[in-house]
Design goal:
7 helices, binds S-adenosyl-L-homocysteine, 7-stranded parallel sheet
Length: 236
């Protein structure tokens, strides 16, 4: 099992893990005891083998053995700017796109958004568990909710390549775009809500230097589009 412990990891270090959730998982769910091993991660891309020294009601103490850089992070940062979807769809996007390799989620309010909020506590838990399960080296960040216009400005300023997925018009496929452009500065991918982006939003993004891209001939559900877009840029 793998656990993000949000602490520096160095060889030989003894670390007392006091996080109640992790402690419960180790002691009660997995029934680990002294001598059992796991992988601990600092959330900054380092990970190490850890052997349980002791388990008390307040802490699990582990000793770090071999450690090094996690090797599973994508080559460049992918930020998914996702218009807020209905609760279960949004949570599906957080989980699946974490597995695929997205490094940051920005929930957006756009013109056709029906749902206006996100349960951030739940979202962080989903993303953390998906990152552990998929052997990521970091926990993707979940930004505060932004309006579409603010999201466009923020994305533009970041210096990363900006794309907006739109299911109309004869535009380049995101996969082809990713293979033919330099993404070393990262990429920001905008995905619309259930009702799609409005014409004004598409025009606004274009005027701000965004590339409007296609995800294929068929119109995908927003959550499918998020997965396809993330995959197209991570696994070119
Ligand atoms: N209601 C719209 C579809 C919206 S799909 C309609 O019927 O036309 C939701 C979002 O998924 C879109 O805003 C877009 O960002 C993305 N999307 C879905 N299919 C796509 C495709 N084939 N190409 C590009 N983007 C797509």
């Amino acid at each position: 099992m793998r656990f993000f412990i949000d602490r520096p990891i160095t060889q030989g270090a003894e670390i007392a893990i006091t996080d109640a959730g992790i402690r419960h998982q180790l002691a009660r769910v997995l029934r680990y005891t002294a001598g059992d091993t796991m992988i601990v991660l600092d959330g900054k891309g380092n990970e190490g083998e850890a052997v349980i020294q002791s388990i008390t009601k307040d802490a699990v103490t582990v000793k770090v053995g071999v450690y090094g850089r996690n090797k599973n992070e994508p080559e460049y940062a992918v930020a998914l700017y996702q218009s807020i979807l209905k609760k279960d769809k949004m949570e599906f996007v957080f989980e699946k796109c974490t597995e695929i390799g997205v490094s940051r989620f920005v929930p957006m309010l756009s013109e056709h958004s029906v749902k206006q909020g996100v349960n951030c506590v739940r979202a962080r838990k989903i993303v953390r568990e998906a990152a552990e399960q998929s052997r990521r080296g970091i926990i993707p960040e979940i930004s505060e909710i932004r309006s579409f216009a603010d999201a466009v400005q923020e994305a533009k300023k970041s210096g990363a390549m900006c794309v907006l997925a739109h299911n109309e018009g004869d535009t380049e496929h995101l996969g082809d775009f990713a293979r033919t452009h330099d993404l070393s500065g990262g990429i920001n991918a905008f995905i619309g809500p259930e009702g799609g982006f409005s014409d004004a939003e598409v025009a606004h993004a274009s005027q701000n230097g965004f590339h409007v891209v296609s995800l294929g001939k068929r119109t995908l559900r927003a959550e499918t589009a998020a997965i396809v877009a993330s995959f197209a840029v991570v696994e070119q």
